[in-house]
Amino acid sequence: MVTTSETTHIITQPKIEESVELSLKRWFKHLCYFPASSRYFSKKDKQAIAEAVQQAELGHVGEIQVVIEGHIPCSQAYRQNTRLRAQQLFAEIGVWDTELNSGVLLYLNLCERTVEIIFDRGISNATTDQVWQKICESIVQQLKQKQYLQAVVMGVQQIGDVMSSFYDKNMPDQNNELGNAPIIIN
Question: What is the pLDDT along the chain (186 residues), one digit of tens a residue?
């Protein structure tokens, strides 16, 4: 979970200061990665993901944003792992800025085949970390089987289920604060 102060920190601190373990191996892997997200997700697949997000958001005030990134930019890959990158995108895209703090970012990194779920403070008590981790693991299993579209759609549905069980059904929906279409980066 990223709090407002962490989000402010992510936005305002220079990218070079966002550090985790320095990794020349990660940097080289991302440097050599051939951007080919279109190889994994066609226009039809992107539309299917948008429809899955729309369905998963019905009946509650939660907002889901899917970001699929080919690789971390080389200028950041040496000092930034996928978790930090997901937190950065959570802040930059404005997933944290929903009216009821109900945003969830589903981040896929195709180069590393990793999945991160970042959720806002409004749903931090929705469930345990183990449930979020299980969702990530099920997506990764689908990715390993090269079922990319099914992995994302299943993950979106599972996130929607968690949000449906957490939010009161009587709360009025806050419109669509985040777009349903996935954001594809390199």
Answer: 444 445 444 444 444 444 467 887 777 676 777 666 667 889 999 999 999 999 998 888 888 999 999 888 877 777 788 899 899 999 999 998 888 888 899 999 988 889 999 988 888 877 788 999 999 999 999 999 999 999 999 999 999 999 888 876 656 566 777 888 999 987
Full residue range of the structural domain in which residue 160 is found: 4-185
How many domains does one find in the chain?
Answer: 1
- CB of 178 within 8 A of CB of 63? yes
**Can you give the CATH number for the domain in which 178 is found?**
3.10.310.50
Q: Give the residue among 83, 113, 73, 71 at the shortest CA–CA distance from 21.
A: 83
* Strands, sheet with 183-185, edge to edge from the N-terminal-most edge strand: 114-119, 103-109, 63-69, 183-185
Q: Following DSSP, what letter does each residue of 56-108 receive, concatenated?
A: HTTTSS-EEEEEEESS--HHHHTT--HHHHHHHHHHHHTGGGSTTS-EEEEEE
Residue 87: exposed, middle, or buried by beta-carbon count in 10 A (0-12, 13-18, 19+)? Answer: buried
